[in-house]
Design brief:
The protein has 109 residues and is mostly beta strands. 7% of the residues lie in helices and 53% in strands. The strands form 2 sheets. It has a 4-stranded mixed sheet. A 4-stranded antiparallel sheet has the order 3-2-5-6, with no helix packed on it. The chain starts with 5 loop residues before the first strand and ends with a helix.
């Protein structure tokens, strides 16, 4: 990671629900990953305002909702997010939740 840059770490929870589906992750409108169950991605970012979005990764998930999270990155800091699948009675959606490094580590394991 270049000196002075920040990093975003994103992990998808290990769950059986929607295990065949991929979730598309975008940072500032640019796709950075398609995550399967338990997969993670690290993205270098510059300091400043950023937005992370998660959406359906393929046409088979048509109608499934997404989520986003905005944050301000400070120089040299790391930011951690957990992607999860939530299914209600009438709907299903991908969510993204900011977490701590410890929360991220426990989601990876």
């Amino acid at each position: 990671m270049p000196s002075g840059d920040s990093a975003v770490f994103i992990v998808r929870k290990k769950k059986f629900q929607a295990s065949l589906a991929l979730v598309k992750v975008s940072v500032d409108g640019q796709e950075v990953a398609k995550l399967g169950v338990g997969e993670m991605e690290r993205v270098a970012i510059s300091p400043g305002s950023h937005k992370i979005s998660v959406t359906a990764g393929d046409v088979l998930q048509l109608g499934m909702g997404g989520d986003n999270s905005a944050f301000i990155a400070e120089k040299g800091k790391s930011y951690f997010f957990i992607v999860d699948y939530e299914q209600g009675f009438w709907n299903a959606k991908w969510t993204i939740t900011p977490t701590t490094e410890d929360g991220f580590t426990s989601a990876v394991n």
